[in-house]
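Progress note, project year one: complex with FE(8)-S(7) cluster.
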Amino acid sequence: MIAPQAPRTAGCSAGSCGSSAGQMGGLSDKIRAKVQDHPCYSEDAHHYFARMHVAVAPACNIQCHYCNRKYDCANESRPGVVSELLTPDQAVKKTLAVAATIPQMSVLGIAGPGDPLANPARTFETFRQLALKAPDIKLCVSTNGLALPECVEELARHNIDHVTITINCIDPDVGAKIYPWIFWNNQRIHGRKAAAILIAQQQKGLEMLVAKGILVKVNSVLIPGVNDEHLKEVSKLVKAKGAFLHNVMPLIAEAAHGTFYGLMGQRSPRPDELKALQDACAGDMNMMRHCRQCRADAVGMLGEDRGDEFTLDKIEAMDIDYEAAMVVRAAFRAQAMAELEAKRRHKEKASQILRFQPRVAKPAGRPVLMAVAAKNGAVAAHFGHAKEFLVYEAAADGVKFVGHRKVEQYCAGNETCGDAESVLERSIHALAGCEVVLCSRIGIDPWRDLEAAGIQPNGEHAMEPVEDAVMVVWREMLAAGKLDFKPSAAKCA
Ligand code: CLF
Ligand code: SF4
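Model obtained:
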């Protein structure tokens, strides 16, 4: 068996493969074949398959208020990160090296550091070479959409069947608060007029891609007070136009990044605001909740970065036999697919049983958010070693993955960090809204501080599968009469 790299989502409806529970059942075989090994388009697949990005696209044709050009494109990547720029030849070499070393690597994406379609020669040369040299790798691109319509034919020619468009608004008045200018037909255009052109190009590009049968994911950056309520309309419209998946990402605005929003004190959304908006949009749209806001040169499973293993000097020293690697990759893929298919059938069967069960009153008990320090699908990480917690919502009808919270490591090995107290404080703040934290082990100090903040630590389910452990804890809380009322929010919220 292939060990999944993180817990699968439980409580999804039949055939779920992408994101929000219950949103992606009933996929056609053609679409399932396209998404089943794409770690971003399929939540299940991201436990088995990895992606990598090559940073070949330096220029951008618009300005977003959350972007500083010194860093990667914040439409797809975590702000404040600088990727190493590669030529198309270097990018191809790196891709072959990674794919030969990491059989899980199924997708090559171009997502920066600027806009890939504002650098068409470099982007398409990379895709052209890879389609020839590594036909088993899916190709993926992320764009702000301004140059998209004139690139659709070429995207289709290179067999790129996954495109992400960042659409933050469909109203130019909202857009004028996000985009100060665009570069269009050799001119810089400002304000509302610029936003109107960008929106029209994004919508046209979306329609053209859908008409070509290319799967479209829409990214939206949630900017409190600017486009938060508006994103519900965006979600409805892009779904109506045929987008497959909507990924609402939190704005990250820090003064240290030197962005307009960062310097102006524009705040980022809290996790509960992000979840509430994702839940509100989920009625109309498949929602992605496992995005990790990768770097433009990210390598590995979502949430991990193995870029250091593939620097240009290391690649140079590698002897790559890609034909032999393809045999290994095909064997890995076949095994992973068989496991994913078995899981899908199991879920389908379970949901059929539920459908045909006589209707009985649901047991009482409100939903509870639990944070899990997980590894390979089990409650397996020490609280102090975790770099992220996976967040699950447990309720009477099952367990559903709802997101993740990044934290700093509280301790490395047996050493507690120098500023452990403030790291712990920040971790507790990051876990706001969660009522329980499950981990394999936890020290006395963090236990005490978590409890004081209204979050119950739990180390009793070490090495158990995550969903089973979360459900057991929820049932214990129900039996103890803790789920009949809304508790006061955790003190750190
Ligand atoms: Fe890369 Fe984006 Fe393709 Fe995925 S990432 S270009 S669709 S292969 Fe994925 Fe990373 Fe989130 Fe992007 S987790 S930032 S959604
Ligand atoms: Fe920055 Fe990306 Fe916006 Fe261009 S599209 S300004 S690179 S965030």
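The chain has a mean pLDDT of 86.
The two ends are 41 Å apart (CA to CA).
No further modelling is planned for this target in the current period.
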